Amino acid sequence: MSDKHLSDSSELTEEQQREERYLARMKRKKEIIDQSIARADQDRGVCLVHTGNGKGKSSSAFGMVARALGHDMQVGVVQFIKGAFSTGEEAFFRRFPEVQYYVMGEGFTWETQDKERDIAAATKAWKQSEKLLNDENITLVVLDELNIALKYKYVDLQQVIKAVESRPVNQHVVITGRGAPQALIDIADTVTEMQVVKHAYQAGIKAQKGVEL
Amino acid sequence: MSDKHLSDSSELTEEQQREERYLARMKRKKEIIDQSIARADQDRGVCLVHTGNGKGKSSSAFGMVARALGHDMQVGVVQFIKGAFSTGEEAFFRRFPEVQYYVMGEGFTWETQDKERDIAAATKAWKQSEKLLNDENITLVVLDELNIALKYKYVDLQQVIKAVESRPVNQHVVITGRGAPQALIDIADTVTEMQVVKHAYQAGIKAQKGVEL
């Protein structure tokens, strides 16, 4: 069989052989993909962590909010450590009654220079997050920049892990921010590290509306 | 001065010293951040590339669409290589007259098993992309999964580079998909590589509405 195939192949033009290899490769790819999909048959809420120094951690959480709204889901968003400037996503998602949107930070920590105020703001934001993580009507919870609050120990890691692990079974939660703690990565289902290859500000371009703002 | 500072420090409690170091570190961080922002003073459209094997490449492009809509910008989206299943972001963003939304793929290539049909679909999608990249009224263009079409040479790389480099000066363009070609990375302003740390399907969880769909 193998010999016959080889002798057949030798009668084909180079282009036909390439085409055969292409089809064989595509067929194999489809088989692998189909097998993976067949194996993945659980249906439940997932915990996602977006970390790393690159751009896209918060943006992709907000892309998921758009996806969820496309399925008429209820969404809760808490932005930690932000709030010093108004952002496009806030202006946009506040238009939708399906979205509960909380911005409780007081600007980035290096802007406030006031540790007590930062801790108070983070604690308040975390209390709000716990309510969302207890609410069965909310299908997607975004805890934007929570990792920063965890890094500075403004929010207790064990409390976060407990609340995430005891959330409603079909609820998705996305936690963003650089420097995600290992214990959070351990309990998450999907973890992406956004790595910066290059960034426009390195070329002197300031933050742009619709991109960063 | 340095000696005096040292002798002063020795009179402080450990907690006060920690607090001093904290404030000094935060102050320095703020200085560095402020300097970077001061240097970055150019205002123009940027080209972003989201690549890598991790989750979040398309989601973060759609997060930027939400941001842009928050600023009342006009947006154009072309989805390459997709289209076999309806997604939440499509259902959502089609609600907005500010968004031109085109889905021109015929499912992933390994689903179609038909190279000629894939090329025809990609070519049609690229023609639409060129129109958006020529339109001064469009502030943000998303070319979703274009990198896949480039990888299979369904779309010509040099044509893409030419169209991206000659787009309106204030227009942002986001190109997503794994395996971004180096020549595209070279001309981009911001490039992020999404790296998979882990993914829910590895634990047997299928694609979830609001997360992947």
From TrEMBL, chains A, B:
EC number: 2.5.1.17
SUPFAM superfamilies reported in the protein's UniProt record: P-loop containing nucleoside triphosphate hydrolases
Compartment list: Cytoplasm
UniProt region (Disordered), positions on chain: 1-20
Pathway it works in: Cofactor biosynthesis; adenosylcobalamin biosynthesis; adenosylcobalamin from cob(II)yrinate a,c-diamide: step 2/7
Catalyzed reactions: 2 cob(II)yrinate a,c diamide + reduced [electron-transfer flavoprotein] + 2 ATP = 2 adenosylcob(III)yrinate a,c-diamide + 2 triphosphate + oxidized [electron-transfer flavoprotein] + 3 H(+); 2 cob(II)alamin + reduced [electron-transfer flavoprotein] + 2 ATP = 2 adenosylcob(III)alamin + 2 triphosphate + oxidized [electron-transfer flavoprotein] + 3 H(+)
Free-text function comment from the UniProt entry: Required for both de novo synthesis of the corrin ring for the assimilation of exogenous corrinoids. Participates in the adenosylation of a variety of incomplete and complete corrinoids.
Protein family: Belongs to the Cob(I)alamin adenosyltransferase family.
Name of protein: Corrinoid adenosyltransferase
